[in-house]
Design a protein that fits this description.
The chain has 701 residues and is mainly beta. The protein folds into four domains: 180 residues, Galactose-binding domain-like (Jelly Rolls, Sandwich), CATH 2.60.120.260; 163 residues, Jelly Rolls (Sandwich), CATH 2.60.120; 148 residues, Sandwich (Jelly Rolls), CATH 2.60.120; 161 residues, Jelly Rolls, CATH 2.60.120. It contains two helices and 48 strands. Strands 34-33-36-31-39-28-42-47-44-45 form a ten-stranded antiparallel beta sheet, with no helix packed on it. Strands 1, 2, 3, 5, 6, 8, 11 and 13 form an eight-stranded mixed beta sheet that branches. Strands 14, 16, 17, 19, 22 and 24 form a six-stranded antiparallel beta sheet that branches. The longest helix has 9 residues. It is elongated. This is MAM domain-containing protein.
Length: 701
């Protein structure tokens, strides 16, 4: 068997080291027993080549050229790729591996004067093949190349180029039969080197990843602070980003296992034009774990933006046993500079005892803290939304109730009774401190016919109140002062109640015009708690009340005291064949959405997950905001220009999906989520689906 020489290039990010050559017979079996995972340009049909070009191969310095050589179709070829031309492809590697094996045929055509075909992997030269010919025309030879190079990342950016310095009618090249093999890690190893066995390989275990596919269309749970969610397609390479420096992005991860050390690997792209770079940094739970302030050493020009770009593969380790880790990127703010990420991978070193936390080593147990264990408590808006609208969700449009402030026309003119009218649906949201009971006291006025007014606390009917004097409304226009056909009575109710945010609502007669004949004033709300230092006559703990709010207590009423009229509606629509609650022409800035859940299991922490659809003409000044019991827990904005081509349906509106994954310290078993648009203009809409709540007994910070 004829010896073949192969090149193993070991490199670390931007540096070449330990270049060596091996004969095929000298290679260990691990290099020969590799797995084919990528094969392109192997057909004799140019249309196939065009398809492959469309699905991921990019070209710098040339248009797409196809040729036929020796009866075979070639990408490039005669009068094909020449001076300044590079073809490239970001290839995902599906298996854990330590080496890549690449096979291909290169055609060198016409006059080559001791010039090179150059292969790069992740920006580093892994092979240079010298080619020389004294012929100036009608000369073509192909070189069968088979190279090996050390590599362990989840993707590899391959570049094929040359050192040619003349136009393609004098010298050119082409390629076909590209095959890439992964020399995989031993069984049970997620990371390894070429000499490792199952017993000696790295003990880091893969946990999770983001932005690790050819294409992605969501934020995958990452939050962009005070900027729009966006992805940049750098010709054929997708990034999460093109964020201006100074904009921070972050995500809080929940890692279910117990561990004592974390490894993070990701690809970082900087897009700027300055000679001296600004500083980029990555923090984990507030601790600095990585900085990058290098000037450009190699650049690409494939993103079709104003400045060139550069990328680096990052591998960083740090000690931690926190199951909740927030990774956050920061950078100095410099005008005209941007950044992005992809292939964000997390690995951990596990504790031997997976029922306890450990520190420093796999066997050093941390005694006090318990493992965080989230249990799914709510699963909603997953399928068949339109057929079964969830009762916990409602969208509503509110209007100020100021116009409903009025006074009786039947009482003495010197001291008329003033009140907030009770018609239609009237509500106010209240925020409480922790409590056990709720007491509501107010005065009811009526000169109307007998009817029922419903009093609700959240979605629970607290009481049905019958008011009115007789079967007919009273017309006091001709009556003397002191007319007897009026009622003005004190009303009080006390209920068990623990929610920290509640909506108190009245539903009365539908207003159809004329005088407002019934209403209420001197509205007081109290919270109650047990005080066992003060006892009742029976020896039970006494309830002590605290005043929360008092409304409409003045003689003259001019302020609605935040009481609102409300109209409810809830609809489901379809976007990209998915049912969503809300959607186009349903939920805009004039509507708010409330999700009210009760009787969750006892807990100390919540995990809230959902997919939000931003639909229509969102501008970079408009936010969607989520409140939990009146406290803001999330806000985000998007920009239509970034998703204009992604349509809910043919000819339908554009949309962008944003994934939400929040971890919150929250212990009440009843809670309210409010969704609203901040600074909307009316042509932006949203919807939601895939809503999950998980609870944990552990306290998180």
């Amino acid at each position: 068997m004829r010896n073949k020489t192969f090149f193993l290039q070991k490199y670390d990010q931007n540096l070449l080291v330990d270049s060596q050559s091996f004969h095929f017979e000298q290679l260990p079996n691990e290099f020969i027993n590799s797995i084919l995972f990528y094969s392109k340009f192997v057909f004799n049909n140019r249309r196939y080549y065009q398809i492959f070009l469309e699905i991921g191969w990019g070209i710098i310095g040339s248009s797409a050229i196809f040729d036929a050589q020796m009866g075979k179709s070639v990408f490039g070829g005669s009068n094909g790729f020449a001076v300044g031309t590079t073809i490239y492809k970001l290839v995902l590697v599906p298996q854990a591996h330590h080496t890549l094996r690449m096979k291909f045929r290169i055609w060198a055509i016409n006059k080559w004067e001791s010039e090179y075909i150059v292969i790069k992997a992740d920006g580093v030269v892994v092979n240079k093949q010298l080619v020389h010919s004294s012929l100036t025309s009608n000369f073509a030879q192909y070189l069968f190349q088979e190279i090996f190079f050390f590599h362990s990342g989840p993707s590899v950016l391959l570049e094929i180029t040359s050192t040619l310095n003349e136009a393609n009618n004098n010298e050119s090249w082409g390629v076909r039969d590209i095959e890439i093999y992964a020399v995989t890690c031993p069984t049970g190893c997620d990371l390894c080197s070429y000499s490792d066995t199952s017993d000696t390989c790295s003990q880091f275990q893969f946990t999770t990843s983001n932005f690790a596919t050819d294409t992605f269309s969501t934020n995958q749970g990452w939050v962009v602070e005070d900027y729009v969610v966006q992805q940049l397609l750098c010709d054929k390479i997708q990034l999460f980003g093109y964020f201006p420096t100074g904009v921070s992005i972050y995500k809080r991860y929940f890692l279910e296992t117990s561990f004592y050390k974390v490894k993070v690997k990701f690809q970082f792209w900087k897009i700027d034009a300055i000679a001296t770079s600004n500083t980029h940094a990555l923090y984990a739970n507030g601790d600095l774990i990585w900085t990058y302030d290098k000037t450009k050493s190699k650049t690409l020009n494939i993103c079709s933006v104003a400045t060139s770009e550069e990328y680096t593969n990052v591998d960083v380790e740090f000690e931690s046993n926190s199951q909740l880790i927030t990774f956050q990127f920061f950078s100095d703010s410099v005008a005209g500079e941007y950044y992005g990420i992809r292939d964000f991978y997390i690995y951990v070193l596990l504790c031997e005892d997976q029922t306890a936390l450990c520190s420093k080593t796999s066997t050093q147990i941390v005694a006090d803290p318990d493992l965080i264990d989230f249990q799914l408590s709510v699963s909603s808006l997953v399928s068949s939304i339109a057929a079964s609208l969830p009762p916990q969700w409602s969208s509503y449009q509110s209007f100020s109730a100021t116009s409903r402030l009025t006074q009786s026309s039947c009482t003495e003119a010197a001291v008329p009774i003033q009140y907030m009218s009770l018609y239609d649906k009237l509500y106010k949201d209240f925020v409480f401190n922790p409590h056990k009971t709720l007491k509501i006291i107010f005065y009811l006025y009526s000169q109307s016919r007998e009817n029922n007014v419903l009093l609700y606390v959240d979605d629970a009917l607290a009481d049905t109140i019958t008011i009115g004097y007789s079967s007919n409304d009273i017309n006091c226009a001709a009556s003397g002062y002191g007319d007897k056909f009026e009622e003005y009575t004190l009303y009080a109710i006390e209920i068990d109640h623990t929610a920290l945010m509640s909506r108190i609502s009245f539903i009365g007669l539908t207003y159809t015009g004329g005088n407002f004949l019934q209403g209420f004033n001197k509205f007081e709300v109290y919270t109650g708690n047990c005080d066992c230092n003060a006892c009742t006559d029976s020896g039970a703990c006494q309830t002590v009340y605290s005043l929360v709010d008092i409304d409409f207590a003045q003689d003259t009423l001019t302020d609605n005291e935040k009481w609102q009229l409300i109209s409810y509606s809830i609809l489901a629509t379809t976007c990209n064949s998915k049912e969503i609650l809300g959607g186009y022409n349903v939920l805009s800035y004039t509507q708010q959405v409330r999700a009210l859940y009760k009787s969750l299991p006892t807990h100390n922490s919540k995990r809230i997950q959902m997919n939000v659809y931003f639909i229509g003409n969102w501008a970079n000044t408009e936010y969607l905001v989520i409140l939990l019991d009146n406290n803001e827990i999330w806000r985000q904005k998007v920009l239509k220009a970034n998703y204009a081509s992604q349509l809910c349906s043919g000819g339908g509106p554009s949309y962008q999906i944003v994934e939400i994954d929040l971890f919150i310290s929250h212990s009440t078993t009843d809670f309210t989520l409010i969704f609203k648009i901040d600074s909307g203009s009316g042509d932006e809409y949203w919807g939601v689906r895939d809503f999950f709540i998980s609870t944990s007994n552990q306290i998180i910070s």
